Amino acid sequence: MSELIDIFTSHKSERSFTEQPVDEAVLDRIISTAYRAPTSVNSQQVSVVITRDAGRRAQIAAIAGGQPWIAKAPVFITFVLDMHKSAVGMAAVDQQQIAHQSIESIVSGSTDIGIALGSVMAAARAEGLGIVPIGGIRRDPQAMISLLELPPLTFPVAGVVIGHVDEPAHQKPRLPLATFRHDETYQTQGLEQQIATYNDEMVQHWKTIGRNDGESWSESVSGYYKNIYFPDVLPALLKQGFGTDK
Description:
Elements: H1 3-9, H2 24-35, E1 46-51, H3 54-63, H4 68-72, E2 75-82, H5 84-91, H6 103-126, E3 130-134, H7 141-148, E4 154-163, H8 191-208, H9 217-225, H10 233-239
Antiparallel strand pairs: 1-2, 2-4, 3-4
Helix pairs in contact: 2-6, 3-7
Enzyme class: oxidoreductase
EC number: 1.5.1.39
InterPro entries: Flavin_OxRdtase_Frp, Nitroreductase, Nitroreductase-like
């Protein structure tokens, strides 16, 4: 197995970090992977905001629902869906942007952010650092927009914590590969049993690492998906100038 593939398949979301700074040259190399990542129609509709200031990281930790690893680790990167710069670029040739009025722009931009985020996570781990991606910043997107002073036609989609690991995390089991990989057409047969088996495996995983309160996968995902758990996303998107009805 190549070293690159091993980086991806050995992924763990770390939540225990030291306060040791990340070397500036290392951070530059990590950021360069997102900077050079592909984007739809070369729109380059991704920007990143680097937060090192301890006070600001503490604010982000609170915005994300109280995640102390955001405050503890030395670097937090926010990935921003950015159609502000494309609007400015179009204005330079006397054109008006309308794509941001469509849900497609949000899907496309979020896809590009996922690619950039994955690149950064792999690069950070290749540099010997730990990471944990953070979606919790969407819990209060308006607070993030204000904190980072984001202009209209931008939106903070996700973030990532980067730092030196203190106590390494355990890699979680996954649903069977057959629930993920579908050859030619989507396969639904046997899904219920595969999920049931995985639920038992997850409970055993938690017990193995000393977590007797650990939930099954079905229970865990239900805790999130039985509600609209980030209801402030749509109002913030609309306030930033995005549309969803086209």
